[in-house]
Amino acid sequence: MADTRPLLFFDSGVGGLSVLAPTRALLPAAPLVYAADSAGFPYGTRSESEIAARVPALLGRLAERYKPRLIVIACNTASTIALAHVRAALDVPIVGTVPAIKPAAEVSQTRVIGVLGTQATVRQPYVDDLTARFAADCMVLRHGSAELVELAEAKLRGAPTDLAQYRAVLDGLLGQAGGDRIDVIVNACTHFPLVAEELAAAAPHPVRFVDGGPGIARRIAHLTVGQDWPSRPAPGIAVFTAAPNPALVPALARYGLDLIETL
Known about the structure:
The chain is 42% helix and 17% strand. It has helices at 17-26, 48-66, 76-89, 101-107, 119-122, 125-134, 146-156, 163-174, 196-202, 213-223, 249-254; strands spanning 7-11, 32-36, 70-73, 94-95, 112-117, 139-144, 184-187, 208-210, 236-240, 257-262.
């Protein structure tokens, strides 16, 4: 009998779809549950103590309901703050999301890298550690933006956004001393790859954007190698902690999430 246990992706909003999409491409028969903590959104402006308490509690409830074979914390902020707490609380394989500083350093020619995330992510010591380990010979500039999270959410709802808003966000990074030499920007929030085209169009000079989505997908495939999957994919489930905006439904369907539930 096929193993119907799903992969469960968790984020504060819709950003984790940028991790779900490459995973679905690698594992097309995998049952999927996408959980958005819409009642707690956004995480980037919340305190570390709030996130460290909230995320393990929510994932415990989600694990009890959906019995996942693996949980992906598809949120940089939640991962950098709560990953250890979740692993201590749950007896389920947990995959986290960390800023893609290593691949950025591997491709940067100018040795000046930008890290674009939420305020909560860019100030984490974890970013210091990744920089020291993988980009010690680089200048690494950081900028936290709550507005860019909102822009990504708006885009998924089909709402219009203005290129000037993206330019203003990028100016917070590229406008820093040395920022004009940045040739690679790490999208250190899973929301940001959803607006990668807008960011590239708004950049005043050519910049390469990198994120962890494809690498996380490969990690999930590795951890589940040899496991049984259904012969055909079931409709994916999107679960929210507060009633979702109906305008999100068409976008969720494009990601294979046809069923909407609340926790």
